[in-house]
Structures are given as structure tokens and as C-alpha cells.
Design goal:
The complex is a heterodimer. Chain A is mainly β. Chain A has one helix and seven strands; from the N terminus they run H-E-E-E-E-E-E-E. In chain A, about 15% of the residues are buried. In chain B, the strands form three sheets. In chain B, strands 1-2-11-10-7-12 form a six-stranded antiparallel barrel. Classes of the chains: A mainly beta, B mainly beta.
């Protein structure tokens, strides 16, 4: 990577979002365009992965909705993300929590981090 | 028709106003100096000879320096000199500079460059031949197989795909779209990939087959 590319990438990276990790429970406020109107859609769940770096960073949020597992991925630096709220910090021992996909009920819960 | 000489800076992705991601190649184009002109009257065709980059004065022959004198670049001669064909004679003067802002957003361009060299390669990599089975007593793995018949025609067809040198040739990709122009830093953002490695020299021209999107 050269200086020019670094500058281009840095300019686009968002610095206003909070720092969150895999295991945290977050609420993502995403801008959705329906025809001509724009509205905010929220999605609450556990962050199960953060991958990539810089402008390409991507994260996946998982939740159980109506007894069905549901996952949504977002590019971290997307201008379509209006806001991210952190609701709970999770205590986890790995960076990718794909094992949650095989679990149901109470076993699929991430313990809260307490200081 | 218009064109510039430039350098490939690398690839990244950018978001547009609606939040969509586009894969882009960043090109540093210009500033290019007009070194010489080809005119319909004098040469039978129209073109501009452009110079790009900088070379140390001591590394350039006197002949090149003398050639650059007209445009005032004899003390800092350009590293790359190329001709850009035009439809009609240019109104630019010899010695003037052209920058990235001659291209606009949503315009289509053709980009020429030298692709990466791959060395001597077999047919599987070079021409996507299928190759044989590696298991079940395979026998032939990455070989080309039969290259022709026996007595008739008794020779191998011309142009038969065979192993050999791959890459390191000049290639043009047509109809690439410009998504952003940065006139201050002389950068042009092109959707998709362009030939050659990062740092490679490229020539960017307005597209032959496609005009700007409305």
C-alpha cells in the first residue's frame, strides 16, 4: 500500500462508531431506502464475527427471531449505518462465534462481561 | 478522443451517495506535458505526444533532451513518452500541461497496460485446459493430451495451444466507467480492474465503443 491509497482508505473509514467486539450485543440502526422515502431499521443481536480491516471491515450480527436464527452482515464503514448502540458486553474466548449457530435456547447465550 | 499517461496506484472500494460499494482502481494520471504535435497537414494524422513522470537529466540522451526543448522539459525530461491519437488536430500548444480533469465522472474509457508476467506456463494455467485425473490411476495430470492426428494432416495445426510464455504483454480493457475524478491529486477512480501491477504505467483514453452515460 502506498501513501495515496492509505489516504483514500482513511478518508472513508468511519471514526464515529463505538468499539465493539464479537460477543457484544448491539443494536444496529441502518438506513433503508424504500422507493423515495428513507427510514431507519434496527436490528438487535449478538456480534458473531468481525472480519477484514480498514475500509473493508465487515461484521455479522445474529439473533433468534420467532424461533428462527437470523443473521445480518454489515460493512462497518457503510454510510448506511446511522448508529450502533452497544447494549451488553459479552465474555467470549474466541473471535468468531460460529458455534452459536449449532446451539439453541439457553446454550446459545453469551455470558456478560463484568469488571 | 482524449488520453493521458498514468500510473496504477492500486485497488480499493468506495461508497457512492446511496451507500453502494464499488470496486475501484485508483490511477494517478498526469500531469502530462505536450511534447509534440502530429497534424493532418504535416503528418497525415492527428495526435499528441505526451510526456509523463520525471527522469534525471543525466540519465537521458542528448537526442531526447533536444526533443524536449520545444516543450521546456529538457532540464527535467519525462520518464515516459507516448502518442495519443486524436480525431482532429488539437488546439493545445506544445509545452502545455494536461491533468486528470479532462475526464469527467460517468465517462467510459479504455485502459491499456502491460499485464503481469507469469513466465513459462503449462496449458492448464495458460489456457484453462482440463487436465487429467490425479487419482484412480490417472496417468496424465497437467499434460495437453493429443495435439493432432496421424498421417493426415501429418502436422500440428497452426495456432495450436501449447505451453509457453504467459503474460507480460500489452492489453487493453474497454468500456471502463469513471466513478470519481480528483483534480487536485490528479487521481481517476475507475470501476473494475485495469491491466498490470500496482505502479505499472497505463494509458487511459476515451472509450472507442461507448459514450458517456446520461
Amino acid at each position: 500500500m502506498n501513501k495515496t491509497m492509505d489516504k483514500i482508505n482513511k478518508e472513508q473509514c468511519r471514526t464515529d462508531l463505538p468499539d465493539f467486539k464479537a460477543g457484544d450485543t448491539v443494536r444496529v440502526h441502518a438506513k433503508i431506502v424504500e422507493g423515495k422515502t428513507e427510514r431507519i431499521q434496527t436490528f438487535t443481536g449478538t456480534v458473531i464475527s468481525r472480519q477484514g480491516s480498514g475500509i473493508q471491515e465487515f461484521f455479522v450480527v445474529r439473533r433468534i427471531a420467532f424461533g428462527q436464527g437470523m443473521e445480518r452482515g454489515y460493512p462497518l464503514n457503510s454510510p448506511r449505518i446511522a448508529k450502533i448502540d452497544i447494549l451488553r458486553r459479552g465474555k467470549v474466548r474466541r473471535s468468531k462465534l460460529y458455534y452459536l449457530r449449532d446451539r439453541i435456547g439457553k446454550a446459545a447465550k453469551v455470558k456478560e462481561k463484568r469488571h | 478522443m482524449k488520453g493521458l499517461i498514468g500510473k496504477k496506484m492500486g485497488m480499493t472500494q468506495i461508497y457512492d451517495e446511496t451507500g453502494r460499494i464499488s470496486p475501484v482502481t485508483v490511477l494517478e494520471v498526469g500531469p502530462c506535458t505536450v511534447l509534440d504535435q502530429r497534424t493532418e497537414e504535416k503528418n497525415g494524422y492527428s495526435a499528441l505526444q505526451l510526456g509523463f513522470g520525471k527522469k534525471k537529466s543525466k540519465n537521458v540522451t542528448k537526442a531526447v533532451k533536444g526533443h524536449c526543448e520545444k516543450s521546456g522539459r529538457n532540464e527535467n525530461p519525462p520518464a515516459y513518452i507516448k502518442e495519443i491519437r486524436l480525431d482532429k488536430d488539437s488546439e493545445l500548444e506544445t509545452g502545455s500541461e494536461i491533468k486528470a480533469d479532462i475526464f469527467n465522472v460517468n465517462e467510459y474509457v479504455d485502459v491499456t497496460g502491460t499485464i503481469k508476467g507469469r513466465g513459462f506456463q503449462g496449458v492448464v494455467k495458460k489456457y484453462n485446459f482440463g487436465g487429467g485425473r490425479f487419482s484412480h490411476g490417472g496417468g496424465w495430470k497437467r499434460k495437453p493430451g493429443s495435439i493432432g492426428q496421424c498421417e493426415f494432416p501429418g502436422r500440428v495445426d497452426k495456432g495450436k495451444k501449447m505451453p509457453g510464455h504467459m503474460g507480460n504483454v500489452r492489453r487493453t480493457i474497454q468500456n471502463l466507467k469513471i466513478v470519481r475524478v480528483d483534480a487536485n491529486d490528479n487521481l481517476i477512480f475507475i470501476k473494475g480492474a485495469v491491466p498490470g501491477p500496482t505502479g505499472g504505467v497505463i494509458v487511459i483514453r476515451s472509450a472507442k465503443k461507448k459514450t458517456a452515460a446520461k
